[in-house]
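Notes continue from the previous slide.

Worked example: a multi-chain complex. Inputs as given:
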Amino acid sequence: MIRYEIGIVETRNVIKSILDTYGYDFRDYALTSFKRRLEQVIMNNGFKDADGLISRLSGNKDYFDLFLQEITPETTEMFRDPSLWRTIRDEILPDLMKGGPSKPKLWVSAFDSGEELYSLAIILKEAGLLPEVQLYTSAISDKVIDKIKSGRIDAKELEVNEANYLRFIGKRNFSDYYKNENGQTILDTSLIHGVNFIKLNTVYDSAPGGIKLILFRNQMIYYNQILQDKVMYQLSNSVVPGGYLAIGVKETLENTNTSNKFTVFNDLDKIYKKKTT
Amino acid sequence: MNYKAVIIGGSAGSFQVITRILHSLPPTFPLPVLLSLHRLKHIRSGFVEALSIKASIPIVEPFDKEQIKPGRAYLAPANYHMFIELGNKIALSTEESVNHSRPSIDLSFITAAQVYREKLVGIILSGANRDGAYGLKKIKDLGGTVIVQDPSECQVKTMTEASLKMTNVDHILSTQEIIKFLQNIKTTAP
């Protein structure tokens, strides 16, 4: 493994150029992982260096959209942390369905590459609730939205997805949810038929409201403390009192300024419940 | 040299070695010990408990952005990469596997090397793939001290031999000698 590496100054130059040209603010992304993603983008595209990337980005909106896809880490696994999905199925969904006549809103708010959304859709379908809820998902790039809609997933992840589904103990066979076409694995796109796609920028300043369940797993790890606070503030306003927020199992709200708005619902799977007062 | 951190990478055959090392460190060990070990990714609990049974310093599976403190061992959590972030913090990542591994020893070592530079000790133990070899080279390139467990003592030699091939290491040591090295380590702490 020989890697191309860039320095911190070059990393900041790229960030500044993107902010100036497109208004997307990556200044408060965690430096180590963002720098690593940039190195990956530079290598994969055959750019000479950070300046090569900057000049490609300037005045090329199409490439910028692709860049947004490349810079955002993929989720890489369906049913990651199977116990979380069991908790959602067995404890949270029944609670969500209690309220009034309007359909509860569920939001996959991390910049998912589709895995979290399809996992959620599958458990809803198995519970017979898919038509009874409103699903939202957010993405940073149009290309990611197209990819999710196409249902195409990386075939090498299939084994992991299948193993996770088995541990989750679903009602059917995982193979019921995908087909193979010319060596390409394609998920059943009817699962996400009614999903509302929301395009968001890095600071989540146009988040939807009235949400009963937010999945925001393993995205704060790519932020520094400042951005964690900013985005958590937006999300805490999106979720209704008594609603749920799931973050990654190795993330915590403890160090954010919104922790006092939530109580811990399930510590092992890092699910929080918004206080009612 | 006054060191600021020790980072250890291992895979198949390293569990007993790590256990012996953690058992033999003085409870007042003056540095953080960063552990990037290959492990079953779907089993989240049990590993830190197993390592803790005989350890003389506390072992934690850090949360993201946890501050790194001396006298503690930090075990890379299952199914996450563990980076060392500027400001002496842990940063986790769910990015794709590297060398078929998440956590990847290479990624932990490279990021630790960039933060601690010459004040880092990197140690590669027994293991069944090449993950860690490049990371160890980065530590050496940035002035750190690098140690490889004597392959003749390793249950699986692939990882140590790959590391020796890539880097002119400072020491090739048995487990007992690694322990001795760590017990005598000098630090910047008062």
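Summary box: Helices of chain B lie at 15-24, 47-52, 105-116, 133-141, 158-166, 175-183. The first strand of chain B starts at residue 5 and ends at 10.
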